[in-house]
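Supplementary Methods. Inverse-folding protocol.

Structures were first reduced to a discrete structure-token string of length 197. This string, shown here, constituted the complete conditioning input.
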């Protein structure tokens, strides 16, 4: 079963990464995948929301930070899966510029671990958390999350299973974040009610 799943994963990877290659995506996907391009608008949006919903802004920051740390320090070492460009040949790879990797034997050393995708985990955690608190915007949050997840495969740095698993873990962490936030607000309101007597 695992062997079959891995074969399907590799086929899907090549379908997106190599067969789906086009000039527009070669330009757009590196931008979508690089959070540095979005720091300024995200900070400005966060500052705007800070006056109206400060706890929501704090909540999403904590959810993203926790999901990222969980991926790097727990899940990636636990699964120990190497990235596609470490394991496969002829990967359409973006690392500052586009290239096609050679055979696996030409790859030297281990670059980093692949499962789950930290990008996918973090963006899906944030999307769920934000969708709960800003419900009219939920389609936008998930379009962004899906675009980021797709870009990771297109860039050759993750398998489809990496981003799928990251999306599941991220969504669960978003659920956990919403539950913890609601418990916090519930306790806070109880304290305010009891304190007003």
């Amino acid at each position: 079963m695992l062997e079959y799943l891995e074969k399907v994963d590799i086929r899907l990877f090549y379908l997106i990464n190599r067969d789906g290659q086009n000039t527009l995506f070669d330009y757009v996907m590196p931008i979508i995948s690089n959070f540095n391009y979005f720091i300024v608008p995200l900070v400005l949006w966060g500052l705007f929301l800070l006056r109206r919903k400060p706890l929501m802004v704090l909540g999403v920051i904590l959810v993203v930070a926790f999901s990222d740390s969980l991926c790097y320090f727990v899940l990636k070492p636990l699964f120990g899966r190497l990235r596609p460009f470490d394991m496969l040949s002829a990967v359409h790879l973006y690392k500052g510029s586009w290239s096609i990797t050679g055979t696996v034997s030409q790859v030297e050393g281990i670059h980093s671990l692949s499962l789950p995708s930290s990008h996918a985990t973090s963006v899906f955690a944030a999307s769920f958390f934000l969708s709960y608190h800003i419900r009219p915007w939920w389609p936008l949050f998930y379009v962004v999350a899906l675009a980021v997840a797709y870009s990771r495969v297109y860039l050759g740095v993750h398998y489809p299973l990496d981003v799928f698993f990251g999306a599941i873990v991220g969504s669960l962490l978003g659920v956990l974040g919403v539950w913890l936030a609601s418990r916090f607000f519930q306790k806070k309101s109880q304290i305010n009610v009891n304190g007003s007597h």
